[in-house]
Please model this.
Amino acid sequence: MASVAAILKDVRTCTLCAGHLPLGPRPVLQFHPAARILIAGQAPGRKVHASGVPFDDASGARLRDWLGLSQEVFYDLRRIAILPMGFCYPGTGRSGDLPPRPECAQTWRPILVPQLRQLRLTVAVGRYAMAHHLPEESGSIAEALLRWRDHGTDPRLMPLPHPSPRNNLWLARHPWFERELIPLLRQRVAEALSEGDQPSSN
Ligand code: SF4
Model:
């Protein structure tokens, strides 16, 4: 089996869907097998494509606030892994960024995610990550969140709406999300980072 370093080298030189990427391949991810929390995002936007730093934008600032994490902890790759569904900027359509390229998750997730042997919590950010990590959820993000809140579904996996400013209207229409679920999310995050080192089944 290839080492993590070799896998990451292959990811960083990947050109699999280069023909579909308007700015060319530039995978943006954060990964170390010791990470306790996986942030499953969507895909880099233009700003993140330029900086090469995941969630280095307004979405990231809100996400860190939701998670209750400082920049220092959020960017500690031994604690937090960040794997968007598409690692490269997919381009922009009429109503915002295009969906993450499907080849990316199909190719890289089955190789990378099993390397996270200390994984305690996966945070599925936005509908593309939710569709992948919670395939049984066919409804809206609000419905998935309410089910998660009301029925105590898998505590190791939490869906989130995308923290983009484009979702401000959604957040205004669903005030229970920040009032009720964010405290729970922060608690889960703190627990995941402080738990012992026993291997996880997730
Ligand atoms: S989006 Fe993913 S599959 Fe496509 S070139 Fe980038 S790393 Fe490769």
The domain at 4-194 is CATH 3.40.470.10 (Uracil-DNA Glycosylase, subunit E). The chain has one domain: 4-194. The first strand starts at residue 37 and ends at 40. Residues 66 and 182 are 6 Å apart (CA to CA).
